[in-house]
Amino acid sequence: MKVATVANAKSHLSSLLADVEAGEEVVITRRGRPIARLVPEPGIACNWDTLEAWVESGPPAPGVTVAQLREQDLL
């Protein structure tokens, strides 16, 4: 878990959001006391290795439905 002051959060928000996208929590403090917590949104995180493997696997077999792809966690 990363800790940042309000001033630091204001000047480095993009970097902190990148950390959150990578799965890290960020606590924002004011005068040493926690006032906010940035956490990743559930289901938003992207595993690039999994995505790359999926793209390289090529198109699904003809006749496969979207529902079937979802059942197989391919969508």
List the helices and strands and how they pair.
Blueprint: E1 2-5, H1 6-11, H2 13-21, E2 26-30, E3 33-38, H3 48-56, H4 66-71
Parallel strand pairs: 1-2
Antiparallel strand pairs: 2-3
Protein described:
With 75 residues, the chain is α+β, with helices and mostly antiparallel strands. It has 2 domains: 44 residues, YefM-like fold; 30 residues, no CATH class. The protein has 4 helices and 3 strands, in the order βααββαα. Strands 1-2-3 form a 3-stranded mixed β-sheet. Strand 2 and strand 3 form a beta hairpin. 3% of the residues are buried.
Strand content: 15-25%
Q: State the order of secondary-structure elements, H for helix, E for strand.
A: EHHEEHH
State the domain count: 2
CATH superfamily of the largest domain: YefM-like domain
Helix percentage: 40-55%
| Broad CATH class of the largest domain | Alpha Beta
- Contiguous low-pLDDT stretches (5 residues minimum) are none
Please list the strands of the largest sheet in the order they lie side by side.
1-2-3
Major sheet, described briefly? 3 strands, mixed
Give the end-to-end Cα distance, rounded to a whole number of Å. 30 Å
CATH fold call of the largest domain: YefM-like fold
Helical segment count = 4
In total, the number of strands is 3
Which class do the helix and strand fractions yield? alpha+beta
Q: Please tell me how large the radius of gyration is.
A: 19 Å
The CATH architecture term of the largest domain is 3-Layer(aba) Sandwich
The average pLDDT value, as a whole number, equals: 86
Shape: elongated
